[in-house]
Specification:
The complex is a heterodimer of chains A (296) and B (525). Chain A is of the alpha+beta class and 296 residues long. Chain A has helices spanning 2-22, 37-50, 74-79, 82-91, 107-121, 133-141, 166-169, 172-180, 259-262, 265-275, and strands at 151-152, 155-156, 205-210, 215-223, 227-232, 237-241, 245-250. Chain A has three domains: 2-121, Cytochrome c-like domain (Cytochrome Bc1 Complex, Chain D, domain 2, Orthogonal Bundle); 133-185 and 256-275, Cytochrome c-like domain (Cytochrome Bc1 Complex, Chain D, domain 2, Orthogonal Bundle); 205-250, SH3 type barrels. Chain B is built from two helices and 39 strands. In chain B, the strands form ten sheets. In chain B, strands 1-33-34-35-36 form a five-stranded mixed β-sheet, with no helix packed on it. In chain B, a hairpin with a 6-residue loop joins strand 24 (345-347) and strand 25 (354-356). The longest helix of chain B is centred in the first third of the chain and has 6 residues, at 10-15. Chain B is globular, with a radius of gyration of 22 Å. Chain B starts with 9 loop residues before the first helix and ends in a 6-residue tail after the last strand. In chain B, 57% of the residues are buried. The chains are: A alpha+beta (296), B mainly beta (525). The interface between A and B is medium-sized, with 26 and 39 residues.
Chain lengths: 296, 525
């Protein structure tokens, strides 16, 4: 293990050094497969077939190769742009275990791997998928009925998560999964601890019968052994004690996960193009000197 | 100090008053058999039963409980330590630091800080003889004056080691501490003893067998590694044996390169307190490839098992089985699953030997196994109540996925919660019959799904049951019915304690970075 780590470190340093030298170089043309969901999927397969012998899955650290996407690669992420990464894939890194892939796999496949790595590196806003955004907006408010549960910039329903900034916090593939996979929960590493008490993010649909006879339908925002917090289908927030409750029945999820089927292919592509553009990048943290004076 | 567990000092009586001057030091070695007004070590007492003799708070008056005070522990995150209490003073520890509080009010009395400052997880201190003992994250054991925080000694005698933040054990004139990495990278788990008064190094026991130990043959030629000892032990003052659980072999999930049982990983071990020599061991998961460990708290209880009195050692193991052993010799008595699904393997009902199922070996593709690597339970302390005959444990239902990074013999890997909804994780406060292993009642910790806090029980007929998601509840020890609750507003991963000052009983717990203390209103007492 120690040897593998040392090798990884060498590669990491080599890449970082290469990145520093190349930093001033022009970044070159845009990868033609960037933002192409199908090519990104093929790129993932190619990555898994060719790269995971050394690197980890999803750009993580492997037994020989360094992490490409996350922590250790902060220097990589900051200093190698997409074309520089493609250059490393094509030509390898001298004096390390990173081989040149040019000639071993096609240039298109190298570009697809590059598109896949690009898709891992940022949020949807960094990698918005292609499509007709204006038509996607129409689908959101019209045929897709997304606005009946979700809000965008103050307009829409209350039972689903607010999507105003969704593209800045989710990756494109995560947004696609949410619309197409019944089980799209993102599972974390089993060894990681939470750092605070989060509300529920499962939007479980329930039918509640109160002892007083009244019934309520809605989604659970939170619950524990003693209390429930419910967003009713009537857009009212209900704060309930379990002692008031006669029974709670789970109802089918209100979020459809067959949008790739209930919409025509182009409609779906346009909706995704629209969603992957909802949000804005967080502004850089203001420095003490440049921050605005307190208006008070 | 009160020492009801110590036999009448017959020797003193026989030898006459001239020797009495040296006897208090011997007599003071033992904490009370059952925690009462003080909670001087992690488990409350040597047997780890967490069964307090305090009965001011009862099932009848528990609905009147109220918060008494809160103390924020600065610079920390997610406290896993159990504060200790002696003579009305509470000691809240981290690596290299102690805050001493008035246990009635939460007012800080003194603070001790030592470089390097760190907020790394640490599980507690011990207090005895007006001294507080903690370990540091740079391999030292410290003794402080309990009244002022003045440093009395800092150990230097032991080999270069890395402690795991386990709470020190104070027994028989020694401080016992343990850790994960002996001599650097992966020298394996170890237990060390130091002189209680001077800090002088005494002995080391290692979970990795020596070259001349036949156990070395259980590694198939692989360099032994692992067996981390990151949870505190138990002690039997009559048998003069200490009991600890050891962790998993290394590499954690890939067993291909280390064929064999991999002793002394995943073992409950009994050591002679004076010499550190291994008296017996019992391995719960031979050739562990799920990181199950056997580090869960070992509870000592004198019981009647199948009509015969037994000095038992009880453990709800991370692998899903509840074990009953004879602690005098390690004899296996019984193992019963305490969660609904256990499929990593079976236990031979006669020998207790764990037999892993090859179908549940971790793979590159990912293998779903129950329980998950997080375990059917983990470090949260269980509690045993001799009056109800129930063993209370924070149980985790659910399964996990173990994925190898590659098929290489020593591949690294990871674990996840099972993606199948029916196998997702859910915590329960579970009462099981201590002798049959049958579940008697469950208290579902709604939303809590990961590790969670430990428990305690009292002669007042209650179980104090905190939840991962911040609630603390008092449950009826017989029925599990909730009698009172309070939302602490942060994640709880520590185990609770109870103590009394001026005749008033408190229940306390570390939640997030705060200590909470609860008690009855004055007029209700």
């Amino acid at each position: 293990m120690k040897t593998a780590l040392t090798t990884a470190l060498v590669i990491c340093l080599a890449l970082t050094g290469a990145g520093a030298q190349r930093r001033a170089a022009p970044s070159g043309p845009l990868n033609p497969f960037a933002s192409n969901a199908q090519a990104i999927g093929q790129g993932e397969q190619l990555y898994n077939q060719n790269c995971t012998a050394c690197h980890g899955i999803n750009g993580g650290a492997g037994e020989i190769g360094p992490e490409i996407i996350h922590k250790l690669s902060g220097a990589l992420r900051g200093e190698l742009d997409d074309n520089q990464i493609l250059d490393v894939i094509r030509n390898g890194t001298p004096r390390t275990a990173m081989p040149a892939w040019k000639g071993k796999i096609s240039e298109d496949d190298i570009l697809k791997i590059g598109a896949f790595l690009h898709s891992l590196r940022g949020t949807a806003l960094d990698n918005p998928l292609t499509g007709d955004v204006a038509l996607g907006q129409d689908i959101f408010w019209g045929k897709g009925q997304c606005g009946s549960c979700h809000m965008l910039a103050g307009r829409g329903g209350l039972r689903g998560p607010d999507l105003t900034n969704i593209a800045a916090v989710r990756k494109s593939n995560s947004i696609v999964d949410a619309l197409t996979k019944a089980n799209h929960r993102i599972y974390g590493d089993g060894g990681v601890h939470l750092s605070a008490l989060p509300p529920m993010d499962t939007y479980d649909a329930v039918h509640i019968v109160l002892k007083a006879g009244k019934t309520l339908d809605g989604v659970l925002l939170n619950q524990d052994s003693y209390a429930l917090q419910l967003m009713g289908n009537d857009d009212q927030l209900y704060l309930l004690d379990r002692q008031q409750v006669q029974e709670i029945d789970a109802r089918p999820p209100i979020m459809p996960t067959d949008y790739d089927k209930r919409l025509a292919p182009k409609e779906f592509t346009d909706l995704i193009a629209f969603l992957t553009r909802q949000g804005r990048h967080a502004p850089p943290a203001p420095s003490r000197a440049s921050s605005n004076p307190d208006p008070d | 100090m009160n020492h009801p567990n110590r036999k009448t000092p017959v020797l003193a009586w026989m030898l006459g008053a001239s020797l009495l001057c040296i006897l208090p030091a011997v007599a003071q070695d033992t904490f009370p058999a059952q925690p009462g007004k003080d909670w001087p070590i992690y488990g409350g007492s040597y047997n780890n039963q967490r069964y307090s003799s305090l009965k001011e708070i009862t099932a009848a008056n528990a609905p009147n409980l109220q918060a008494k005070w809160t103390y924020h522990v600065e610079g920390m995150h997610g406290l896993e330590s159990v504060p200790v209490v002696a003579n009305g003073v509470m000691y809240v520890s981290g690596y290299n630091r102690i805050d001493a509080l008035d246990a009635r009010t939460g007012n800080v009395i003194w603070r001790f800080r030592r470089e390097p400052a760190t907020s790394a997880f640490q599980r507690g201190a011990a207090v005895a003889h007006n001294r507080v003992y903690i370990t540091t994250n740079d391999g030292h054991v410290l003794a402080l004056d309990a009244r002022t925080g003045a440093q009395l000694w800092e150990s230097k005698g032991g080999p270069l080691v890395s402690f795991a933040g386990t709470p020190p054990m104070v027994a028989n004139g020694k401080i016992l501490v343990s850790g994960n990495r002996f001599h650097g990278a992966d020298g394996g788990g170890f237990i060390q003893a130091y002189d209680e008064k001077t800090g002088e190094y005494r002995w080391t026991w290692r979970a990795i067998p020596d070259k001349d130990d036949p156990a070395i043959k259980t590694w198939g030629g692989h360099e032994p590694g692992g067996g981390p000892i990151w949870i505190g032990g138990a002690y039997d003052p009559d048998l003069k044996l200490v009991y600890y659980g050891t962790g998993q072999p290394n590499p954690q999930w890939s067993g291909k390169g280390r064929p064999g049982d991999n002793l002394y990983s995943d073992c409950i071990v009994a050591l002679d307190i004076d010499t550190g020599k291994l008296k017996w061991f019992f391995q719960t998961t031979p050739h562990d490839t799920h990181d199950y460990d056997a580090t869960e708290i070992v509870v000592l209880a004198d019981v009647t098992f199948k009509g015969k009195p037994r000095k038992a050692a009880l453990q709800a193991n991370r692998n899903g089985f509840y074990y009953i052993l004879d602690r005098t010799n390690g004899e296996f008595l019984q193992a019963t699953p305490f969660v609904s699904r256990v499929d990593w393997g079976k236990v031979d009902p006669k020998t207790g030997r764990g037999i892993p199922d090859p179908a549940h070996e971790p793979t590159v593709k990912g293998t779903i196994t129950c329980p998950s690597t997080a375990g059917a339970t983990n470090w949260p302390s269980p509690a045993y109540n001799p009056a109800t005959g129930l063993f209370y444990v924070t149980a985790t239902e659910g399964c996990g996925v173990n994925t190898l990074a590659s098929s290489a013999p020593d591949s690294e890997t990871s674990y996840l919660e099972s993606p199948r909804d029916k196998e997702s994780w859910q915590l329960y406060t579970r009462a099981i019959d201590a002798m049959t292993g049958a579940t008697k009642w469950d208290f579902k910790q709604i939303r809590s799904n990961h590790y969670g806090p430990g428990l305690l029980t009292t002669e007042g007929g209650i179980v104090f049951s905190p939840e991962q998601f911040g609630q603390v509840s008092v449950l009826d020890a017989k029925s599990g019915q909730s009698l009172w609750h309070y939302n602490t507003g942060d994640l709880i991963t520590a185990s609770p304690l109870t103590y009394s000052v001026d005749g008033r009983q408190y229940l306390a717990i570390a939640s997030g970075t705060n200590i909470f203390a609860f008690g009855l209103p004055e007029k209700a007492q």
